Structures are given as C-alpha cells and as structure tokens.
Amino acid sequence: MSAVLLVVLALRQEQIPYPYNLKEPVSAAEARELLLAYPARAASHFALLRLMGDKSPLAWQLSESEAALWLAPSNPYVRDLYASTLLRMGKTAEGLREITRSLANSPSLSTHFYLSEKLLPWLSAAEQKAVEEGFKQALARGYPDALGSLAGFYARLGRFSDQGTIYEQAALTEKDRGKKAQWLLDAGLAYAKAENQAKAELLFRNAITTQPTDPRAYQHLATAIYGVKNDLAGAKEIVSNGIKNGAPPFALYLALAEAARKAGSPEDSKAALSSAKAEIERSSRTGQDPFPLYLLLADAARMAGNRDEEKVALLAAVDLRPRSSDTLFRLANIYMQENNFDRAAFYYRTIANINPNSADVFYQLAV
C-alpha cells in the first residue's frame, strides 16, 4: 500500500523542473505576479523591466535593474540594461564603466544588441571606446571569443588597420602553426581592405613561410595584391611557387584566373581555367570526387565573365549528379540568358520532374 501511494504521488509531481516550468509573462501584470512568486530570480526582475519599458520612472528602473544585476552579475543582458538606465539618467561615467564590464564578462557581438551592424555606428565615441576597452580586457584574460569579436567590432566600424593589428599581434604569440597562419591571413586581408598593400603582402608571405602547402596565402597574394596592381607576372610567379611548394594546384589556378580577370587579360584567365579543369580530371583519376570541384570551376568562370567555361563545368557536374536541382537550375538560367529557350525549358522540366513543388521552376517555364 505504501509503495502504491508513493508511485501515485510521484506521478502527480510537476514533470518539468523549476525554473523551466515557468512561463514567460506577456503582460506587466503577469510579470508582477511572477516577481512576487520568485523574487530571488533575476529573470523575474528583467521580465518586469522589459514589459514596463519607458512607462516607469527611471529611479524605479534603476532599482529593479540593480536587483536583477545583484542576482545575476555575469548576465550581459541585465548589465547592459543597467548601463543603459545609468546613461539615460545622466550618470555617464558609471554607465560607460558598466558597458566595459559587460563586454569584459561576455566578449561576444551577439550578446549585446547595440553591437549589431545597424546600431553600432550610432554609438557615441565614448561608448565605442568603452566597448573596445571591454573587449581588450577580455582578450587580456584569454577569453576564446574575444579576439574574433574585437576584430568584428573593428570591421563593422571600418577600422581595418586596427583589425589587422590585433590579428598580427595574435600571430606573434601563437605557437600552433595552423592558428598562426590563420591569424596572419586574417591580418593580411584586413590590411588589404585598409589599402595597405605592402603590409598585407608581407603578412601573406609570412603565412606562406609558416605553412607552405596552404593555398590560401598564394591565392590572396595573386588576387588581393597582384591582381589589384594589374601585375599578372607577379601573380603567375606566386602561383608557380605555390605549386612547387606542394599547395593544391586547382585552387591556385582559380586564383590566377581571377587575377588575370582583374588585370584585364581574358586569354590568361581562360588558360588558367583550362589548367584548373585539367587538375580536376587528374584528381578524379585518383578517386577524388570531382563534383564539388566542377562547381568551384563554374563559380570562377562566372566571376571571370567566361560563360562558355561556366557552362562546360556545369554540364560536367550534371553528368555526375543528374538529379542535383541547384546545378540544373544554374545551367537552365545560363541558357535563359543566352535566349536558348529550348535547352532552358528542357532543364527546367527536368527539375520539375525531380521537385514538382518548386514554384520557381514553373515560373521560369511560364516566362
């Protein structure tokens, strides 16, 4: 009898444990009831503040945000709300210190609403400086997300030289060769955006020294440095050096095709694409799946403005994956652009047979 009673009591217990059994309030009245029931829960104070908005006095908002912060001092959302209240009350120095502390505790762009791409430029110079200082404190503590978040902060503000500097500093102290090469590449790309080509070239070459078989540094040198300077000879030389050092030739030939396009040489671009195609055929004989390589080749041909090479690459990809709707759609669109409506309709109908629920395909057929 006792065992049966205990089983019945156990089955009647709340199935979802606290605090996951609490529902999010949708009105200020519900938020007040939740706060009275659970006053030592930071989320209760935060919910009431959120639902009351600017309708309540600033002094009350400050009191509630202080209570929530005392209960959850490491919560970035609560601290940001507290900082915002201080700033709206004219307590600028205190508010800026709280922003810095919030970023130091949670160095992530996603946990602070005011760091979105739309809102960040609207921050005052003092507020931006407080955010930057918080990121730097987190970086000094060795928080994993701090470097990427600070770099993203600089990028959103267009401060690419500062972005390059922090990546370069990270590379100087990094022992892992893979991470070191990555930081050097990121630094080089940032300096390239800042139009400091000399610095970018130096860092890309340092990345090559760190990892000679990584194709990315050769690619960036060919496209972001020599291609921009219309130095096709330099691009060819760096691609040749990369192949000699054991970097994958396919990726390097694609980079050379883009560099040749930037340098205004369609003949050299076409030759590079042909070399890349030959590499696909060579690698396929060793058992490598050529399908994704043909798609990359098609992308490179499109960027180079070579529609014929793009079409050939997509046709080869379709032969390998005849039911790939995305590839068929790209191919059909090319024929549409060429006013070859019979071929376009053929591939659109093929897609319709594979995916009869695609509205885009029937629309294109109607066109």
Layout of helices and strands:
Layout: H1 2-11, H2 28-37, H3 42-52, H4 58-71, H5 76-88, H6 92-105, H7 125-141, H8 146-156, H9 160-173, H10 177-193, H11 197-210, H12 215-227, H13 232-244, H14 249-262, H15 266-284, H16 291-303, H17 307-320, H18 325-337, H19 341-354, H20 359-366
Write a brief caption for the model:
With 367 residues, the protein is mainly α.
Provide an overview of this structure.
This protein has 367 residues and is mainly α. It is 72% helix and 0% strand. It contains 20 helices and no strands. α2 (28-37) runs antiparallel to α3 (42-52), α15 runs antiparallel to α16 (291-303) and α17 (307-320) packs antiparallel against α18. The protein starts with a helix and ends with a helix. The model has no long low-confidence stretch (mean pLDDT 92).
How does the overall form come out from the CA principal axes? extended
Mean pLDDT: 92
- Please tally the β strands and state the result: 0
Distance N terminus to C terminus? 77 Å
The SSE string, one letter per element, is: HHHHHHHHHHHHHHHHHHHH
Q: What is the makeup of the main sheet? A: none
Structure characteristics:
single chain; 72% helix; 367 residues; mainly alpha
